[in-house]
Structures are given as C-alpha cells and as structure tokens.
Specification:
globular, mainly alpha
C-alpha cells in the first residue's frame, strides 16, 4: 500500500510547504509515486515490473476513459469557440432567477445523471456551462464545478442503467428495483438537505445588469447532447454528435472556418493532456499495488474481526471504500469486493438489497472525493482548475457518505435492516 501513501504524502507535504496546491503539478506527484511503486515491487526483473505497470495503465476501462476525455475536450473547446457555451449561459441566466442558479444546476445534474446513468457524461455536458455561469455571476468557479460533480453522483448511485448499480445488484443477487427502493430511502434526505443548502447559498448571487439575447441555434449542440444522453445513447456517441453539430453550426454562422474548427478540436484534445497522463499513471501504480497483494491485505484485515450485523455492514462499507481509494474506480471497487461482501452479508444475515446499496453508495462517495478519480479530473480539466481546489465544496458526496453511515448505525431503513 506504500505507493499510495507516498503519493498522498508527497503531494500534500510539498503543497503545504509551498503554501499553494497549484504549485506542485499532480503529474509530478504521480510520477514520483509510480517510480517508487516500480522500485519496491521486488522479486521480478525490472522490465516485468514495468510491463505490469503498463498493463494497468492501458486496461480497457482506462482506455475507454481516455477516449471519453479526448472527445470531451474536442467538444468543449469547439463549442466554446463557436459560442455555444456563452449562448447556453445566457439562456440559463434568463430562465433561472439568480437565487435559484446553484440549486438549478444541482437539480439539472441530478436529473441528467439519473437519466443517463453516468457521472462522467453528466460532468462533460454541464461543467462548461457551470464555468460560464460562474464567470458571469462572479461565483466561485470551484464551487460551481463541485455542484455539477455532486449532482452527477446522485444518478450514478441510483440510476437503473448505472454500471455501479448493475454491478452491485449482480454481485448481491437482488433486483434493480429493490435496490433502488432501499438506496432512495438512504440518499433522498441527503439530496434534499444539499438542495436547501444551495438555495440558501444562492441568495447573494446577482445576475448581470444587462443580459444579451439568447442565440438559440448556438444552444442547440448542448440541448442535443443532453437529450441524446437522457435517451440512453452511449456517452462517446453523444460527444461525437456534439462535435459534429458544433462544426456545422459554427460553419453556418461564420464563427469559424473548417480549419478553425479543426484547430479548436485540436486545442481541446491537447488541454486534456495532463488529465490523460494522470489517468494512465494512476492505473499503472494501482495495478502494481494490486499485484503485490495490497488490496487482498486490506480485505483480510477488515474482515477478521467482524461481529454482528452492524459490524458486517460497516466492514463492507470500509472494504469498498478502501478498495475505491486504491483503484480510483467505483465499478472496479464493487467488482473486487462484491463476492466477499456477499459472503459477509450471508454469514451475518445482512439483507442483500441493503448490502448492494452500501456497496454502491460508499463507492460513489469515495469516487466523488478523491482528486485523482476520473470525475474530478475531467471536471477540473474542463473548468481549467486544480482538482484539489474542488474538494472543499463537494457537499453532496460527503452528505451521501454520512447518510449511508447513519443508515448502518441507526439501522435504517428499518424494514431492510
């Protein structure tokens, strides 16, 4: 487990000494911890250790994330060059009262993520809009980005088509609808509380004195992206449709010529360079940790003193959380510990629907607050800010975790506890 500790210590300590979290590139922290991981993975030739690292950096899931990052960068930058973001921001400011902007963006992220079942797709679609609204209203950019990230995990945790929901129910042998019912009882209070918080926080926001007219044709790419995503289209296909639309509308309106469109897409892809490098290095480092038995060690340590139903549920929550920290992928975390969670649950009489909800909720909580997870990385990349700066404003993922912990400690919902 030491490579992960080296990464956290190096990044945290050097940033505190510098007095600025922007001073130390997160890529350097991952490079140092990756080199350390290769060095300490003894017992094998150096090239074999490097091969293991490379295999972890280029898994199917890692490459899928990278292709999404590439398409998201191309879409976001070409949409910005075409004027789509400005037009959508103007539409948002015209529709929503200023005091409703924070709550409105949170609700939009919740609804879209629930509909499409992916936090990454929601973040890719809404972060540029949130960033534009932040600029126009003078609101903190990190706060606005965190609102989108938080809302995206509402649907990632609950949606019937979310990979985490499917994986949790499959490993525990329960129906999607039953897990949804239990899960909703747990997380609904958290979502309502955070919505009220955003309503109260939004009272001091003031819209610009004069708002320009909405150019509806330039809003079209975002509307099409959102509608096709809600209808269940693959996120890569959704982003590809968005890229094509921005090109067609940009050419028709004279926002750019064909070479300007290509240039905008190229700049967008390049802007995702750091994000792609971090994703690959994190995958490689975590593969070495897994190969050295780090995750198996965690599982063994967490299950040796389980005693009673509440203890069983807490151990399952701790297991999926720790593996989530190590793998930076909530689906992989559920897949890794799902079988063990099923055994623990059966042994101590934990309802399989409650067990599936615990797996999904805690994995989403961890995924929502680690700065090297795909969601925070893509959000920070699109908003052009450091992922660490978003952490203090991640109210919903924290509320999600607290609600799930209380559900275990207070035996709630009673019927399934």
């Amino acid at each position: 487990m030491s490579p992960l500790l080296v990464f956290i210590a190096f990044y945290l300590v050097t940033s505190i000494i510098a007095g600025d979290f922007y001073k130390i590139p997160i890529t350097v922290a991952f490079m140092v911890s990756s080199i350390y991981a290769i060095i300490v993975s003894g017992g094998k030739p150096l090239m074999q250790r490097i091969d293991t690292y490379s295999r972890g950096a280029a898994t199917e899931q890692m490459m899928l994330m990278i292709w999404i990052f590439v398409l998201a960068g191309a879409f976001a930058h070409s949409a910005k060059s075409m004027g789509s973001i400005d037009a959508t921001v103007n539409l948002t400011l015209n529709i929503l009262p200023p005091q409703m902007i924070l709550a409105g963006l949170f609700l939009a992220a919740c609804f879209i993520s629930l509909s499409i079942g992916t936090s990454v797709g929601t973040i890719a679609a809404l972060t540029p809009i949130a960033a534009g609204v932040a600029t126009e209203t003078g609101t903190d950019l990190a706060l606005m980005t965190a609102i989108i990230v938080g809302g995206s995990f509402f649907g990632d945790n609950l949606s019937f088509i979310s990979d985490t929901t499917i994986m949790a129910t499959q490993t525990q042998g329960c129906r999607l609808s039953d897990k949804f019912r239990v899960n909703f009882f747990i997380v609904a209070p958290a979502a309502i509380i955070i919505l009220i918080v955003y309503l109260l926080m939004g009272r001091g926001i003031h819209a610009p004195a004069q708002l320009p007219a909405v150019e509806w044709i330039k809003v079209l790419p975002y509307l099409i992206v959102l509608v096709t995503a809600i209808l269940g289209m693959n996120v890569m296909a959704v982003l590809t449709v968005g890229i094509i639309l921005t090109g067609i509308i940009g050419l028709l309106t004279g926002a750019f010529d064909i070479y300007g469109w290509f240039g905008a897409m190229g700049e967008g892809i390049l802007s995702m360079g750091e994000l792609i490098i971090v994703t690959m290095m994190a995958g490689g480092m975590l593969e070495l940790i897994k190969q050295q038995g780090g995750i198996d060690f965690i599982i063994h340590m967490m299950t040796r003193r389980v005693n009673g139903k509440r203890g069983a549920e807490l151990s399952i929550a701790a297991l999926v959380s720790l593996v989530g920290v190590c793998t930076a992928n909530n689906t992989v975390a559920i897949l890794t510990v799902g079988g063990i969670a099923k055994q623990i649950g059966d042994r101590y009489g934990v309802d399989n629907k409650k067990c599936a909800s615990i797996l999904d909720t805690f994995s989403c909580t961890i995924q929502g607050i680690i700065p090297y997870g795909a969601q925070l990385l893509i959000a920070s990349g699109l908003a052009a800010i450091n992922p660490v700066s978003i952490l203090p404003y991640l109210y919903y993922p924290l509320a999600l975790g607290i609600a799930a912990l209380l559900a275990i400690l207070l035996r709630y919902p009673r019927r399934y506890s």
